[in-house]
Amino acid sequence: MDTTYKIVIVAILIVVLLIIKGIYDEKRYRQRLYLRLKNTWGQPPGREYSHETLKAIKYYYSQNISDGDVDDITCNDLDMDSVFMQVNHTMTSIGEEYLYALLRKPCTDISVLEERENTINFIQADEKERIKLQMALAGMGRLEKISVYSYIKDVSSMDGGNKLYHICCGMALIVSLCLCIVNPAVMVLVTALLIIHNVITYYRSKAETDSYIRVFTFISRIIRQAESIADTGIAGLEEYKDKLIACTRSLKKFNKNSWLVAGGNMNGDILDSAMDYIRILFHIDLIKISSMADELKKHEKELNTIYNITGYIDSMVSIASFRAGAECFCVPVLYKASGRKDITMEFTNLYHPLLEQPVKNSISTGKSILITGSNASGKSVFIKTVAINAIFAQTIHTVLADSYNSCFFHIYSSMALRDDIFTNESYYIVEIKSLKRIIDKADKADMPVLCFIDEVLRGTNTLERIASSSQILKYISEAGAMCFAATHDLELAKMLSDNFDNYHFEETVEDNNVVFDYKLRKGTTKTRNAIKLLDMIGYKQVITKGAERAAQFFLENGFWTV
Fold first, then answer.
1. Which residues have a Cβ under 8 Å from the Cβ of 378 and sit 6 or more positions away?
2. Is there a shared CATH topology between the 50-325 domain and the 333-527 domain?
3. d(Cα 167, Cα 162) in Å, to the nearest integer?
4. By C-alpha distance, which of 550, 280, 271, 500 is closest to 371?
5. How far is it, in rounded angstroms, from Cα 556 to Cα 208?
6. Taking the domains of the chain in order of start, what are their residue ranges?
7. pLDDT tens digits for 102-122?
8. CATH architecture under which domain 50-325 falls
9. Residue 158: pLDDT above 70?
10. How far apart are CA 384 and CA 389, in angstroms?
11. Against a cut of 0.70, is the pTM above it?
């Protein structure tokens, strides 16, 4: 008896020590998390993304594509994946899925953008409460390589299995164990057979429902942390917090005793390991899965609301952190154009988010812009800078500039195109299809199109390129679009002078080095350094001098010498 008593005491002490250690570890984790969130606010994310992770992040957007979004061509032209990585300071998988979709959906409703601005300001106002909010979000965590939205979307098709069958399996074993006291000779054998049966049927059923274990565990964590988000004291977010509370209450039955499925401790401690044997013998997790699946089907709407509110709040926290780390930024001034003459864009000291030492440029225009200059002078980077910040203005309500003022736009580009080997289409075919989509949008759009075109029709000969590109650019401009086009064809500057303002980038040659300052200047480029570059890297003079003579002859006579 004394030995049994001692064993019980030791067991109790071990359990108490494990509980104390768990509480201590949790406290230490929260202290480290608090300091990390405080010290990394506004710092570059520095996170690496695998192909599978990016695919999972994009899933939510892929299920909610609509007209007016930043299409795949534009997204590829501007390297929006890298831009997203720079902006992404979210704490959760939900937040980054929501933020990615937000960056693909330029908003044309000023009231929506103002609501985002208000939320960002509320979050920035109180550092202590903001960190508390981030800690609540961090508790949800991330699902690498798997989309949270794909889980939620599949709720309606979930099948928790035969609940009654698993109840009977568990009850039969309990009854058999009780009857062992009455007739051990017979019932021990029956119990052994029931244990074998329950183990075999458990693993057979578990294989079919195993995917739900992770789903339900993660959803359960989302619901618990949604309550923590609602508990934060950030003023101005009451409407969102009230909705979260209402939704979590609706899902309380789903969350009740959810530890029966996968345990309350994600680290797989001794208590949870012991519970695994009980789950196997009595099928309690399989019974609970069935009940949880039924509950989720009843409250699919509330689950989607939790997803959207959590994603929205986490995205706004991310934008606030992105702003804190920006060299400078401004809140854009946006308006709806009432007519073609009302289309304007004006910005000062605009810069690209991915460049470490960006050169800033300014412009004020009510017309389309044609940019000339040599290779590597800055033409392509400039129009990408304008395009990305135009998207920022209508999505995250943040522009990397001292000031930014423009009307709302539909935004398209045609820049980084290539041959399509899968459809056997040449570069030229791919390019004219890309340009056609811009023309079609400009013709029927309910608001102006802002488009960015780099080296229009570069895939064909000089004669047809200049003839066709001049008419394409002229048509786009006259259709009421604002176009930023970069070109090497100086002839276009004169041909399109009525529709386009001319700007250029230039460079100088100093001590056999080409020096670029990447500053935008008015007018058409006057420098011609391509032939000089041939000479600088060692081409024979018979080539370079001959090229100079041929170029000069064309400039003086308007045609090429034979």
1. 359, 505, 516, 518, 520
2. no
3. 9
4. 500
5. 80
6. 1-31, 50-325, 333-527
7. 999 999 999 999 999 999 999
8. Orthogonal Bundle (1.10)
9. no
10. 8
11. yes
